[in-house]
């Protein structure tokens, strides 16, 4: 039996990614909720979108259930209306400060309308801010995966300039 033919370049191993569900949570004025990263975070000095990784045991759960858990963990029991469609995707790469291992995250972004409730941020972040994001000001607030995600979101949706 002949061995498989090797290509000119060695085939690389498939990259492994964690899946993270992120939410573009908009208030009635179109501002987006951003969470200020800790100084020890890989996003230090910038903001992040609420959301996080799918955990073991949640693989077969509806994504809306994981989103609800993440939002409750990060911002408390706020009321929101989740839109069912994916609005953007992005990637985030970093070296874990806990394990010193490279982490690859694939972010799936959804949009939701904030309907009320007091925002109570977790210890994962140091502050929050509602920001009317534009193509120009995103660089002030976002970096890495959150920046790529919002850029992808702007490309998909018609751009409406702020009032």
Q: Could you spell the SSE succession in H and E letters?
A: EEEEHEEEHH
> What's the CATH H-level superfamily name?
Nucleoside Triphosphate Pyrophosphohydrolase
Question: Percent of residues in helical segments?
Answer: 10-25%
How far the N terminus sits from the C terminus, by CA atoms, comes to: 70 Å
Please name the CATH architecture: Alpha-Beta Complex
C-alpha-based Rg, rounded: 18 Å
Largest sheet: 4 strands, mixed
Instruction: Report the CATH topology name.
Output: Nucleoside Triphosphate Pyrophosphohydrolase
What is the 3D shape?
globular
**Strand arrangement, major sheet:** 4-1-6-5
Strand content: 35-45%
Report the top-level CATH class: Alpha Beta
Query: If you average the pLDDT, what whole number results?
Result: 90
Say what oligomer this is.
single chain
Structural class: alpha+beta
The stretches of 5 or more residues where confidence is low (pLDDT under 50) are none
Our count of helices gives 3
Cofactor: Mg(2+)
Protein name: Nudix hydrolase domain-containing protein
GO molecular function: hydrolase activity
InterPro entries: NUDIX_hydrolase-like_dom_sf, NUDIX_hydrolase_dom
What does this structure look like?
Keywords: Hydrolase, Magnesium. One of its GO terms (molecular function) is hydrolase activity. Its cofactor is Mg(2+). Pfam families: NUDIX (PF00293). The chain is built from 3 helices and 7 strands. With 163 residues, the protein is of the alpha+beta class. It has one domain: Nucleoside Triphosphate Pyrophosphohydrolase (Alpha-Beta Complex). It has a 4-stranded mixed β-sheet with strand order 4-1-6-5. Strands 3-2-7 form a 3-stranded antiparallel β-sheet, with no helix packed on it. It is globular and about 55 Å long. The mean pLDDT is 90.
């Amino acid at each position: 039996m002949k061995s498989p033919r090797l290509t000119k370049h060695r085939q690389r191993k498939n990259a492994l990614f964690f899946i993270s569900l992120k939410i573009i949570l908009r208030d009635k004025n179109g501002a987006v909720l951003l969470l200020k990263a800790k100084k020890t975070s890989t996003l230090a000095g910038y903001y992040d979108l609420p959301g996080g990784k799918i955990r073991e045991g949640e693989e077969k759960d509806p994504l809306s259930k994981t989103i609800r858990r993440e939002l409750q963990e990060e911002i408390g029991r706020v009321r929101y209306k989740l839109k069912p469609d994916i609005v953007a995707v992005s990637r985030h790469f970093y070296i874990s400060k806990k394990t010193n291992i490279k982490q690859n995250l694939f972010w799936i972004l959804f949009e939701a309308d904030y309907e009320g409730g007091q925002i109570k941020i977790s210890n994962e972040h140091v502050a929050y801010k509602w920001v009317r994001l534009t193509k120009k000001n995103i660089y002030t607030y976002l970096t890495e995966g959150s920046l790529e995600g919002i850029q992808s979101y702007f490309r998909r949706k018609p751009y409406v300039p702020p009032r």
